[in-house]
Structures are given as C-alpha cells and as structure tokens.
C-alpha cells in the first residue's frame, strides 16, 4: 500500500527506532516538552513506547 502522506515529526529524529515510525499515519511526538505540553493543555494522558526487540 502506497500513500502520499507526508512524514510525521519523527522524521527529524536521529534514533533509528523513531525513524522507523516517521511515515506512520500517527501524530507521534518524540519525548520532550512539546509532547508533555500538548498533553497537559488537552488534559490527555501520554502513551510511552519503549520500543521492542526481537530474539533470534
């Protein structure tokens, strides 16, 4: 499936894990004041992804 959606704000991150999600159709925020400020203003919880690993 191909979309013409532009990357989300994670496109500016250096982390390979975060960059994997830069083209997801989710309004992701990297850890920081911008994310927490928005959550506080909108009185919404913060969902934290700590990543994942695969074992071979």
How would you describe the overall organization of this protein?
- It contains two helices and no strands.
- The radius of gyration is 13 Å and the shape is globular.
- It has one domain.
- It starts with 15 loop residues before the first helix and ends in a 14-residue tail after the last helix.
- Helices cover 25% and strands 0% of the residues.
What's this, in brief?
The protein is 25% helix and 0% strand.
Rg over CA atoms, rounded to whole Å, is 13 Å
- Described by its quaternary structure, the protein is single chain
The overall strand count is 0
As a percent range, the share of helical residues equals 25-40%
Approximate strand percentage: under 5%
Q: Stretches where pLDDT falls below 50 for ≥5 residues?
A: none
H/E series = HH
Q: Structural class of the helices, strands and pairings?
A: mainly alpha
Distance between the termini: 28 Å
What is the total domain count?
Answer: 1
**Mass-distribution shape:** globular
What's the pLDDT, averaged over the residues? 85
The total count of helices amounts to 2
Largest sheet: none
């Amino acid at each position: 499936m191909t979309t013409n959606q532009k990357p989300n704000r994670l496109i500016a991150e250096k982390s390979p894990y975060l960059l994997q999600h830069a083209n997801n159709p989710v309004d992701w925020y990297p850890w920081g004041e911008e994310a927490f400020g928005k959550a506080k203003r909108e009185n919404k919880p913060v969902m934290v992804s700590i990543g994942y690993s695969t074992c071979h």
